[in-house]
Amino acid sequence: MIALPVIQPAEAQTKTRKPDWLRVKLPVGKEYAKVRQLVDTYKLHTICESGNCPNMGECWGAGTATFMILGNVCTRSCSFCAVATGRPNEYDLDEPRRVAEAIQLMGVKHAVITSVNRDELKDRGASVWHETVVQIKNLSPETTIETLIPDVKANWEALEVMISAGQEVVSHNMETVRNLYRQVRPQAKYDRSLEQINRTKAYGKRTKSGIMLGLGETKEQVYEAMDDLAANGLDILTLGQYLQPTKMHIEVAEFIHPDLFAHYREEGLNRGLKYVESGPLVRSSYHAERHVHV
């Protein structure tokens, strides 16, 4: 049995610097520069940049990136997210081609595609989602694909269009536990996201979701979320430390010790999940290539 660490009170921790286990190296190297150039040349958006991901140096250095389609302005205003919020004006029907060509030039074996929420669009951007996956497969048939899709607000026809293009993994992040939804995701609904995962599984897809820790959740609430996800057909769960992107966003309640992340991984597996990626620096697409065949 893993001995759980004693966590300092949240107030005390937020006044101290980040613990050593959250330190990351600055992005450098030839492969990083290559990806940087391709992203700029093809005028693409990446969640790596927009989301201030701490793993950008590692992933880009390995020649991979998570592309964000449908612009870089989101119609939602989640309290944890660094992506810009507003009224989007970008809807580029040529974007699927540019993304597919960039992935071909990068020679990636596994591609992750995500997007902002486009609630103002009748189909939630599903047609662009579908075409992006189709064009990637046409140019790079050996490349496996994970699509990290947003909440479709119960537009199940749009969901089917999004997930029917041949991708191997479909991810939809819960982001937090039930009790914190109103605070963390005010425009989303916990049970609606569970239903979206359930419907994706029923369609025959490998399902994936992610939860941020350190927002003030209890261990029992994390266990409840794991049970809910397992009951709705989730295959893969990622657990990572929430990091406050700016002073305008919700504060970190506590820094979760790596030993507790290890404990959560074992708990998730014991509760019926097939694979759990759990660690302070884990993000939705971190080591995503491992999740294709689990």
From TrEMBL:
Its EC number is 2.8.1.8. Binds 2 [4Fe-4S] clusters per subunit. One cluster is coordinated with 3 cysteines and an exchangeable S-adenosyl-L-methionine. GO terms for biological process: protein lipoylation. [4Fe-4S] cluster 1 binds at C48, C53, C59, S285. Residues 60-274 form the Radical SAM core domain. [4Fe-4S] cluster 2 binds at C74, C78, C81. Its cofactor is [4Fe-4S] cluster. Pathway: Protein modification; protein lipoylation via endogenous pathway; protein N(6)-(lipoyl)lysine from octanoyl-[acyl-carrier-protein]: step 2/2. HAMAP family: Lipoyl_synth (MF_00206). It is found in: Cytoplasm. PANTHER family: LIPOYL SYNTHASE, LIPOYL SYNTHASE, MITOCHONDRIAL. GO terms for molecular function: 4 iron, 4 sulfur cluster binding; lipoate synthase activity; metal ion binding. PROSITE patterns: RADICAL_SAM. It catalyses: [[Fe-S] cluster scaffold protein carrying a second [4Fe-4S](2+) cluster] + N(6)-octanoyl-L-lysyl-[protein] + 2 oxidized [2Fe-2S]-[ferredoxin] + 2 S-adenosyl-L-methionine + 4 H(+) = [[Fe-S] cluster scaffold protein] + N(6)-[(R)-dihydrolipoyl]-L-lysyl-[protein] + 4 Fe(3+) + 2 hydrogen sulfide + 2 5'-deoxyadenosine + 2 L-methionine + 2 reduced [2Fe-2S]-[ferredoxin]. Keywords: 4Fe-4S, Cytoplasm, Iron, Iron-sulfur, Metal-binding, S-adenosyl-L-methionine, Transferase. This is Lipoyl synthase. It is an enzyme of class 2 (transferase). Belongs to the radical SAM superfamily. Lipoyl synthase family. InterPro entries: Aldolase_TIM, Elp3/MiaA/NifB-like_rSAM, LIAS_N, Lipoyl_synth, rSAM, rSAM_sf.
